[in-house]
Amino acid sequence: MLRATDVTMSYGSDPVFRTLSMGVDAGEVVAVIGPSGVGKTTLLRLLSLSLEPDEGAVTLDGTDVWAADESARLSLRRRVGMVFQEASLFDAPVARNVEYGLRIRRPWRDRLRSTVASLVGSNSTADAVHDALDVVGLADAVEQDAGSLSGGEAQRVSFARALAYQPDVLLLDEPTSDLDPRNTAVIESAIAAARDRGIGVVVATHDMHQARRVADRVAVLLDQGITEMAPTEVVFENPSDERTQKFIDGELVY
Ligand SMILES: Nc1ncnc2c1ncn2[C@@H]1O[C@H](COP(=O)(O)OP(=O)(O)OP(=O)(O)O)[C@@H](O)[C@H]1O
C-alpha cells in the first residue's frame, strides 16, 4: 500500500539512504530496526509524505506522491498518521486532544458532515474518540485534563489521537522508549488492534524484543539501506544477510 522505492536521501552532503526500498501493506505490522542514527526517523518522515526524497519514489496505493500536485499530496498525507517518541498534548481535556486529530486530518467536507451529524443528534466524533480511547484503555479519562496524565498515559492518548481518524497507515517512532512495561504492553496491544482494523503499521524501534513481539515483518536498516526485510521469524532465526545476523547477535558495534 505505502512504498518507498529506490529512495536516495541526504542531509546536505551527508547521505542517509542509497536506493532504499521497503513498504507496508494493509493490515500488517512492519518493524524497522537498526542502530541509533542510522535513519529510522528519516525513513518515517519519508513514509509520512512530509520529506521529499532526493531520488526514487514514494507511492501510496500506486500514486507517486511527489509527482502528484499539492492538493492531491495533501489528501494522500491525510491517510497517514504518526505517533512520535514524546507525546505532545495540549492543556485541555483528553477528549479534546483526541478530537483534534480528527479535526485537522479530515477533509473539510467530512468535518462539515460530522458537524451537521452532531447537530441532528448522531455524534460520530464522540463515538470515534471514545472508541480510540477504549483501545488504549483510557475510555474513562475522556474528561480528565491532559496536563494531569502520566507520561505513559499521555503517550496512550497520542496513540488514540492518531487512531481516531482511521488512517490507512500508522507510523510510530520509538513509541515506547520512555515507557514502563505496563504502558508499553498497552501500546503494543493497541498496535495489534490497529492492524486488526486493516491499518498498515510501521514501528521504528531500537528494541529488538519489541520488534519480535509486535511485527509481522521486520526491516533491518543498516549501512544506508535495508539489508533485509522478511517475516519476523526469518529475520531473527534465519537471516540471509550476514550484517543482519551480526546486528541481531549484538556483534555489530556502531
Ligand atoms: N534535519 C537534519 N539535518 C541534518 N542531519 C540530520 C537531520 N535529521 C537527521 N540527521 C542526521 O541523519 C542521520 C539519521 O538520523 P535519524 O534521526 O533519521 O536516525 P535514527 O535512526 O532515527 O536515530 P535515533 O535512533 O538515534 O533516533 C543522523 O546522522 C542524523 O544526525
TrEMBL record:
- Which Gene Ontology molecular function entries are recorded, alphabetically? ATP binding
Q: Where is the ABC transporter domain?
A: 2-248
Q: Which domain of life is it from?
A: Archaea
- Which one Pfam family would you cite for this protein? ABC_tran
Q: Which UniProt keywords apply?
A: ATP-binding, Cell membrane, Membrane, Nucleotide-binding, Transport
Q: Which PROSITE patterns match?
A: ABC_TRANSPORTER_1, ABC_TRANSPORTER_2
Annotated coiled-coil segments of the chain: none
- Protein name, UniProt field: Phosphate ABC transporter ATP-binding protein
Q: Which organism is it from?
A: Halorubrum laminariae
